[in-house]
């Protein structure tokens, strides 16, 4: 039984804040992307195709709000892949914070960040807004969006067969925006590679509430994508060069196929192909002089790269081989549960490398995201790649271990495997600098 609560019950502060700020959501057309794995890829596909190619990209504005930001909150909010400027971010944030204080609402960080995104998209007059917020169920900030603004929802691979995640997925389809209004999403796309019980449960839910559901092809036999609008698309090379990405591509194209049939977009087959070719993937390779002990100001030079998909791992490996050749490297690794390990680790780790496996902590607002148990990673890496491997229970203990074993000076240290590991490290770095 799905516990349905209204947005007014779960987000009363943010709803009131936005209403008092001027009701900025009324003009927005929202595509909601949810799931455990693949959200960022689907969002990136959609952003690239919807904004079109030059010179159309100057005319069609696509806003994007994502949980997958690394360095700062501003990375979460972008229009046509350009993050909100510091000036615009500060102006909107200061205005909302003052309003929040005057109303004594005490909105939390996620509520404020989501509100900043909606205000910014409305002020920029975005034609489309892609809200990527995970499977948050009734606690998902996307539930702030009124029904008339939410055009469709796409659910990528849930990753873990968990009853809580399934309930959250179901609550995305039907939810209450207010105590008197129960809303059903008009159209939903589900990644066909999900477990059978997930597919069946979501199919039943959509059938019961009148939501049209499209389940994508789960086959890996070919890279074709069947559509009503453009016929069968033969994808010669799947972006990201990872076979599983065909699933994410099918989800994104199914959303566009729906929008095309509804007359909400005008995209030709040629424009679709050009949009895929011109996909702008997120940047990586962050150099950081990490402050790991505040009181003594101890620092270590790190290379941060979340490398949480096959293509990103290949790009990181290419950079490391070019820069360091056969030099033994030290990796600090944590990986999000549900990810396939070989595509992430095969390109990176060699016999001569040293690996320290650890875990990231709980992710605020997203309790369904968990880290692989370090012992699981330890066994997999030791059996497959290198015997030079150690376990540390958390990030704090990693740096003590590196210092004690002089590993921070013997070889470059690369932190990779998960966006959430990198975000936690950056948070600790900033906290140490403020002491």
TrEMBL record:
Domain of life: Eukaryota
Keyword Metal-binding recorded: yes
Keywords: ATP-binding, Ligase, Magnesium, Metal-binding, Nucleotide-binding
SUPFAM superfamilies: MurD-like peptide ligases, catalytic domain, MurD-like peptide ligases, peptide-binding domain
Family matches, as InterPro entries: Folylpolyglutamate_synth, Mur-like_cat_sf, Mur_ligase_C_dom_sf
UniProt-listed PANTHER family: DIHYDROFOLATE SYNTHETASE-RELATED (PTHR11136:SF0), FOLYLPOLYGLUTAMATE SYNTHASE-RELATED (PTHR11136)
Record-stated family: Belongs to the folylpolyglutamate synthase family.
Protein name (Swiss-Prot/TrEMBL): RMA1-like protein
Source species of the chain: Saccharomyces eubayanus (Yeast)
């Amino acid at each position: 039984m799905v516990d349905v609560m209204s947005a007014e019950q779960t987000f009363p502060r943010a709803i009131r804040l936005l209403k008092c700020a001027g009701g900025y959501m009324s003009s927005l057309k929202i595509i909601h992307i949810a799931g455990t794995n693949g959200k960022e890829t689907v969002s990136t596909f959609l952003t690239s195709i919807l904004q079109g190619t030059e010179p159309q990209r100057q005319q069609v504005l696509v806003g994007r709000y994502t949980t997958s930001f690394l360095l700062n909150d501003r990375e979460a909010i972008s229009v046509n892949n350009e993050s909100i400027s510091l000036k615009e971010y500060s102006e909107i944030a200061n205005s909302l914070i003052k309003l929040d204080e005057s109303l004594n609402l005490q909105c939390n960080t996620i509520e404020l960040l989501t509100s900043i995104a909606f205000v910014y998209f409305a002020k920029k007059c975005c034609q489309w807004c892609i809200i990527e917020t995970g499977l948050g169920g009734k606690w998902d900030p996307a539930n702030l969006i009124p029904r008339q603004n939410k055009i469709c929802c796409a659910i990528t691979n849930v990753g873990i067969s968990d009853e809580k995640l399934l309930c959250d997925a179901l609550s995305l389809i039907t939810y209450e925006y207010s105590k008197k209004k129960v809303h059903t999403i008009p159209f939903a796309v589900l990644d066909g590679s999900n477990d059978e019980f997930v597919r069946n449960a979501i199919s039943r839910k959509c059938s019961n509430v009148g939501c049209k559901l499209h389940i994508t092809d789960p086959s890996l036999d070919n890279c074709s994508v069947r559509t009503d609008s453009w016929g069968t698309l033969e994808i010669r090379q799947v972006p990201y060069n990872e076979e599983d990405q065909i699933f994410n591509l099918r989800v994104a194209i199914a959303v566009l196929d729906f929008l095309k049939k509804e007359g909400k977009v005008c995209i030709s087959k040629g424009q679709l192909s050009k949009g895929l070719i011109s996909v702008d993937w997120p940047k990586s390779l962050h150099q950081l002089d990490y402050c790991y002990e505040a009181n003594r100001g101890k620092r270590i030079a790190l290379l941060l790269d979340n490398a949480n998909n096959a293509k990103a791992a290949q790009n990181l490996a290419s950079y490391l081989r070019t820069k360091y050749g056969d030099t033994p490297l030290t990796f600090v690794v944590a990986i999000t549960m549900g990810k396939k390990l070989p595509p992430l680790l095969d390109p990176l780790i060699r016999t001569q490398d040293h690996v320290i496996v650890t875990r990231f902590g709980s992710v605020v607002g997203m309790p369904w995201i968990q880290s692989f148990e370090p012992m699981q990673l330890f066994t997999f890496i030791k059996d497959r790649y290198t015997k030079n491997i150690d376990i540390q229970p958390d990030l704090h203990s990693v740096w003590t271990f590196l210092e004690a074993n002089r590993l921070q000076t013997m070889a470059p240290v690369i932190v990779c495997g998960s966006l959430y590991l990198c975000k936690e490290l950056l948070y600790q770095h900033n906290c140490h600098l403020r002491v």
